[in-house]
Amino acid sequence: MGHVRNYTIADVIARYKMMRGFNVLHPIGYDAFGQPAENAAIKNKTNPADWTYRCINQMHDELKQMGFSYDWGRELSTCDAEYYKWNQWIFIKMFERGLAYKKASSVNWCPDCETTLANEEVINGLCWRCKNAVIQKDLEQWYLKITQYAPSLLEDLKKLEQWPSRVRTMQENWIGKSYGVEIHFKISAKGGSALGGKDVTDSISVFTTRPDTIFGATYVVLAPEHPLVKKLTAGTSQEKETLDFIGKTANKSKSLRMSGDQRKEGVFIGRHAINPVNNEAIPIYIGDYVLMDYGTGAIMAVPTHDQRDFEFAKHHKLPMRIVIQDPQNLKASIADMEQAYEDQGVLVNSGEFDNVPNEQAKKLVAEWMQSKHFGKITIHWRLRDWLISRQRYWGTPIPMIYCPACGIVPVPYHQLPVELPKDVQITGEGGSPLARVRTFVECFCPKCGKPARRETDTMATFFDSSWYFLRFCSAHNAQEIFDKGEAKYWMPVDQYIGGIEHAILHLLYARFFTKFFKDLGLITFDEPFIRLLTQGMVLKDGEVMSKSRGNTVDPDEVLSQYGADTLRLFILFAAPPEDQLEWNSDGLEGAWRFLNRVYQMVEKRHSKSDTLKGFHSDDADTTLERERNNAVKRVTQSFEEGYKFNTAISHLMVLANAIDKYKIDSPDLGKQHLLNQAIETLVLLLAPFSPHVAEEMWQMMGKIEDSVSRVAWPSFDEKALKTSTITIAVQVNGRVRGQIEITPDMPQDELRKLCLENPAVAKYVQEAAIKKFIVVPNKLVSIVV
Predict the structure, then answer these.
(1) Residue 208 exposed, middle or buried by CB count within 10 Å (0-12, 13-18, 19+)
(2) Which helix (H) or strand (E) holds 732?
(3) What is the C-alpha to C-alpha distance for residues 526 and 510, in angstroms, rounded to an integer?
(4) Which pLDDT score is estimated for 332?
(5) CA gap 334, 328 in Å, rounded
(6) Quick one: what percent of the chain has pLDDT higher than 90?
(7) Average pLDDT over every residue of 326-353
């Protein structure tokens, strides 16, 4: 039902835009590679390709049942060789420009999916797909240098004015630009017999955004993966405890280690570092809450002014020193502290910087440290390069060859695509299935012609989905990745619709690819999606629909009982697109009844013999015409001012009520024309929401010259919206005592006279003196006596 909601929202917008005269590209495709399909194939003892295409065919039929206005000639699947050939083309282009590279590192590993995961794919320590625990593992993997685009990815968020602010904030935080100082802590020669007591040239680089707290640094914490750790502890009494802790931490995911509600664990490695600003020897720890991927993999710990450091120091009984004075508690002491003081104040215990406000001190201390060569002012980014290697079969083969003589060599462009072999045994036991296919692995170097071997990792599926919108412009172009002219005409995407879960993963990657394509000269824009709508989840019994919870609703069952139009209307009426939607069978029944009601209006009250056009000036005619024009105005506004589809459908119901109330007592062609016009307008306004029944009703009314979806959107007349009289409330001393009918903008002296003559109002005023007579034009009169 989540898919039904997403695609219905898009289809209603597309149909509306077509009726407004726009050229609309409304495509569909299948993001079809990945671990779930491979796992399903293993479970069902079939080939992933057979399983996936069977699912695609089923989905294709269901999408057509829903009446989505897709351009089926542009339909594509990412598992088709004609599509993933261009994944490989992009990868080689990135390799040639130094954006694709291979390195060994500690990676997120999902033991259940038997594959690596990017940081963005680990949610609260769990695999984003299977929801099982993720561990750390050392592997050699392929990365994309997305960090090269970090400045423009951050700066260009300002251009995305029509994106939800929370999505922009999520991306801004993930990119994470930080200004600070990289401080050099020399390592003390004392405390390590393996180093023979000699001076140590090694130093620890620590990045901090809080140089104002440097005088309060009482210990240093390294990431367990930091390359200095094993070197500093080799042969010492702390070596075994350190290695045991490193092994223990390897079984924790990065997101779990950074979680605020987890206890921070660590061990002393037996060595000390020198705080450069006061020459104090401070202990060096390794801690699970410090990651090698962030900053320099080392932190200076200031336990009095950072809560994580405070909790760690308390647990390990480490020294603390207050260096920012709480202005509300000038007598604060370490003994009094129950948590770190993280607010502003003036510096204390900070040498020449005492009594300087800490915000001002950030800049002063940073410049002083740089002048003393204790460190350097620098910028750090939270964003890390994108890990795309996956150890599975069902994905795009990475088009690289390993030659003993020539090293890593890309597959020549004319040999693309490197196709997935079909004779593969997939056991789910781990490791790349491609590595076991000799005919795939063994090849010849395209440079020297000698025997070589292919890369057996495949690409993360987010690679596939980072550029598909451009492929839709010319979906089956065999000569180039996409036609530049078509892309120039259609792109960037005017309206993109997708869940908030894509805020960091897919949307960030799509922005990265778009900027890369611009650098290649393929496009002239640098942001892929102008306007973004993040639809809410579909809930049942207060929880997100999920097979594991057993609370799903099968769209096929709803379609067979109610039809697509009812489902579409309900899912748009139940809540605004951005909000969560609670599934409600009663609401489904209500949508069904409304469509039947409109159908009966067309069947029983519309006349095909509408030949005489005329307008009668009695109140009933005026009211119907006003409601018809008001419905057009309000429904149009609901599209143009934020896609408020639930209110749009409400206005359709108001118009239907007005039509029901409009009676023709005797044959009158003029009145019948007004009635016909109102019913036809209702059907046209309903068409984007419930296209099948609207199409049928349009033909029932004799409109056989064109499809209802190709008829121009109705217009409205502002003059017809004006009313001859309006009803307003009259208050006396703050309580409503009556209502009066007035003409709009009635002069105040006439209004006063009318109020006081109203019996319901007069009895509360009587002979009392009127102190105030307040008029809210056309809405309210308030009398104070």
Answers:
(1) buried
(2) strand 726-732
(3) 10
(4) 83
(5) 15
(6) 70
(7) 92
